Amino acid sequence: MGLFNTIKKLFIYREPLQGDQFELLEDASEKIGSPSQTQQTNTDEIINQNAILKGATDKQPKGKKSPLRVEEWNMERQQDPAALKADTTAQVDRISKDLQQNRLRIEQELNIPTNRDAKVRNLRIGKSAKAFIVYIEGMADRSTINDFILRPLMMGDNFKTPQEECSADYILENILTIDGVTKASDYTHTISQILEGKTALFIDGSEFCLLVESRGFEKRNVDQPVTESVISGPHESFIEDLRTNLTLVRKIVKNKNLITEILPVGKTNNSKCGIMYIDGIANKKIVDEVKRRIQSLDIDFVLGDGMLSQLIEDHPMALFPQILRTERPDRTASFLMEGKVIIISDGTPHASIVPVTFFHMMHASEDSFIRWQFGTFLRLVRYMGMGLAMLLPALYIALTLFHHEMIPTELILAIEESRENVPFPVIVEILLMELSFELIREAGIRVPDVIGQTLGIIGALILGQSAVAANLVSPILVIIVSITGLGSFAIPNYDLAIAIRIIRFVFIALAAVLGFYGIAIGIFIIGGFACSMKSFGIPYFTPVAPRARVNPDIVIRGPLWKQTLRPDSTNPLDKTRTGKPVRGWVNRRQRGDQK
Amino acid sequence: MNSRLIPILMTVILAVLLAGCYDASEVDDITHVLAMGIDRGVSDKWRLTVQFSTIQDSPGGGEGGDGGGGGSGQSQGDYTHMTVDAPSFFAGLDMLNSSIPRELSFTHLGLIAISEDLAREGLMADFIAPLIRYKQIRGSTPLMVIKGSALDFIRENKPYIGTVLSKAMQISTRASMNIGFFGHTTLGDFYSDLKSTYRQPVVPIGALNDFKTFREDGPKWGDKYKDEGEYLAGQLPRYGVRKIEYWGTALFSGEKMLTELNGTETRALLMLRGEFKRGFFTVQDPKKPELIIPLDIRPKGKPKVRMSFKDGIPNIDITVPLKGTILAIQSGLHYEQDPLLSLLEKTFEKETKSEIDQLINKCKGLNLDVFKFGDVGARYFATIQEWEKYNWNSKFKDAKINTQVEFVIQRTGTRTKTSPIPNRQEE
Amino acid sequence: MIEEGKFGVQETVWLMVSTIVTKVFYTSPAQVASLVGNVSWYMTLISTATAILGFTFIYLLLKRFPGWDIATIMKDTLGGFFGFVFSIALALYLLFLATNTLSEFTEVAKAYVFLLTPSSFIIGIFVVGILVMCILGLETQARFAKLAAYTMLTGFVLVLILGTENYDINRLFPILGYGADKILITGLARSSVYGEIVILAVIAPSLQGTYFVKKAGYISLILSGLLISLSVLAYSLSFPYYVAQEIVAPMYEMAELIDYGRFVQRVEPIFLFIWFFSSFISITALFYCFVSLYCKIFRIQDIRPIALGSALILFVSALFNMDLGVGAVQRIQNIRQYGWIPPFILPLIALIVGMLRKRGVRSHE
Lengths: 595, 427, 365
Prior knowledge:
CATH topology of chain C: Amino acid/polyamine transporter I
Low-confidence stretches of chain C: none
CATH architecture of chain C: Up-down Bundle
Oligomer: heterotrimer
Structural class of chain A: alpha+beta
């Protein structure tokens, strides 16, 4: 039946859904100026734009709806769950004055005593008022609880007239020597905070509880980046903790306009993500779009960027990554300065950056730390590596199967000779080697660290050598496959590298079928798909196609003092990043400097 | 959208993969012909000889374990050749394919050798026409006329230095750039000259030297002067392994070979055509004719051709600019400076001019414009119709041609002056 | 209305230039050489000038109706029936161009690269590519054209520079070829080479305004004129006129002749890729504009089902063209002699009628 339906769908025309694809276009209302001017005037516009955006998204896709009967309509209304619950839950959710009732409720919510992680401890404040604290063992720091919550509370000296001074307000203001203490009056919030590692203090007769900052779970130290290591430049990398990550970025961008917004994602694991942008540089529309997408998520479990970015990217079916993930705070900060939006979420040592273009994927953070000539050279090497990784095996196939006349005579005779005892056709030969190479790669990541490195090198060497000796492949092919592998390692972005590795096989297939023509049509179609892609409203190949005003920083990295602009494509509110003469000390008439 | 796109894509991909690979052929299914020789056949019209590598690596024998050995990958093993008498090139191709265990491919053809008797019979066009149309044969393949049989030539066509024949062939056919005793003509050049109404084809000559002109014993030469270019192909007095030598030029009238030029004439021809690149020349010492002065000659620019028409007869002025370096002065006279310097220049100019004039007269006698004068002549006509009506090739024999050689000695090598040898006896 | 997106002058220019210049890689140069001899390099400049004149009329027409496409304009100026007829004629002309270019491409590909592969296979793969691009939309095509333009231009210039080895200035003489009258007549008729410029009228709404249409149109025409002239000049320098008119694809053979020493030879791959890409871009643009125009004429909102059907038509007609046998290319060339009528004359009539009837956007206010 499924097959039948599929076939039927092939032949039946369906009207396309009017997708509301987000596109970043320049509005007439958008006034571009310096950040100080825009700061005030922006707020009205933001509200307007929000309204427009909401209006746009609220529109339902046009489709025929058959009229409802009255009974059905009534039933639909009665079943509206949100409306029903709203009143009752408000009542139930409120923290009661009765301590015992609170305790029962908490035990019920946290599944005590089944759940051994949740701890409740009864105490008497100042030896008189009844109270209890709740925390999750392991999430909360035991010494904080002992020294700064229990000790001041239970020392009678702090309370002179017990009756009056046991009120929660008094404790908040006078007793607890901890910076983060907030009041909470509903269970939902309280429970979620407890789950994050805070300690809740319930006091008899108080309509709210105190949430005391006591988070102290185990986390890794800030370490060196693993996949984006550099020679010159900082050696700091994100870790799995959201708070630390946000701090790492803020440590670099010490700007009052650096805004961090925290949004919840993942309904069941209650994870959070932080959105960072610089107010006055980042375009509000992009920020709103990011928030809209994240807020609309309805999923139980999100662990970190890898999962989050899959849920919010524009083209989930496309091979190319549309969100840049980095584990380097310095790189993140430099994107912030370009007016991009950063999404950092709990759980993975990465930050996601939107919107990005293809060219960003080919940049490495090292580029900016070394002189521009070196940076340009490294980039060119990288682009060459990408080209090789994508096309070299395919070109080899095309040449050896279809276009013999294009190989130099000596080389083709050498190939002929080296293939003399090989029983397979070239295509099998190359697939064999490529697949074993991929295998070595994947295995090298999975095996324990100690063996991993040796496996990679030894495996490749021995495998290649023995394959040649056993007449399974020709020696030239080993060279082709190794260069391809090297090329793919040169791609700085891990996601893009995987995409290229997959695309390589498409090209191999096409080249085997139609030679150069196949490769060309492959580039045409894949290139077409890539050109039609957008990353948060920005076309994928932006500064080149479509053209946008941009720094000399796409393929060639121009000198720093020539990079005066923020990328036009993201419509940053402040377009320039430098003063007129960047290097004030240089004589103005010197060549190369801006007027 | 996607639920529909995926089956479509899968169908397409499957169809493509199943249907493709029409033109694909594995490298090892093919043997690449490196040189081709054409003779007049006995059993049939053409005798077609193809030379190819047997891909048998003599030292290693199969795959040596020393993966990095670039040398072993480059060696092409042995070469062999096959000959067939066939009514046409393509018929011969298929006849050969029936016995050769691999398919013959001409995409890497490095040389087309045509026997002299075939060329003299005027059968070139018959054979060249199908070749130029054949996709596998490139227009840039060099063409040679072989004295004797092309089959013998192919038999002797071996690398001698190194193991790679294709490299050896390319280097030796391109040696014309350094010596100028033979030219470089490609299949495409020959074809377009063949079709031309205003120029005639020239093809370099290859020959097998049987080493008979080399005499080990006999009276010694003495002091007489003989120009090194006066030999014809195959007659150089040399001795050594490789019998093949490229020397001189075959002149064609259309498809028919008329005559052969020796080395000196070939150099003059190349100078007039603007194809001369470099060569060592020997000049008799103007002061002491028994001694010589070798010069390294290069062109100083393209030959300048001016033309005028009087009563429908072309009047051509051609200037050949040359520059040179003194390689040696046997006499020790101070030729590095005036007045001897200009004397030397004048001598060379005179000598070269006389060589050029001789060649021009020879060609005028044969009515062959092999000097590309017709190309310049075309400038003086407005339309192609007028030009073709004028019929340059028939007018060439009447043309008045004034030649001029401009020669400058620019360098004197590593010495600025030569002191005479004091003990030398004046004769 | 169909969503076609917006794009800038640069993208448009490269899209148009790729579309127009592709023909230089096929049989056209040889055909022109047999008509005018060795002078096609400046003959084509006459064609460019004619085409610029023709485009001026298109532009004037578009200027009266800023933001409109040609189908709507035709309907407004010529009335329902004649507008329909004219638009359909224009659409068919575009389909005809696409079909011819496709079969010419296949012809040349079969002659030089894929001797054994059946035409249906080459055309089939091509049509799949076109269809995908068509569904992805005009914006994507324009962007791809821009992106590919850099590599294509580099390769093109490289081939031209490497070819200098075989250039001989004397091959440009006699300077008038087969006669001035022939040059003039052929030059005027061959303005059809630049007839693709009419697709600007179809995609005009996608540009930011009429000023940009004008800019893009003139720049594309001049640039393509220069590129065509340059490449034709290069092959006129490489082959004498009597050989040039024999060759199927002179540009390809020109690339084949490049031979510097033992390594810099056999450089056709560079050329092959330029040739493929420009053909892809060109035929896709023509085909897309046909589909788009068709949809605009019949006010169809969704382009995809029409694209699918039209792709089938394109496939079949190109194949049919090939199956007719050896003369196919010759026939195409003969028809090309009259190819200037639809792109330049139809808009001119619309313009004149529009002026007489005083139609224009202002008349709608």
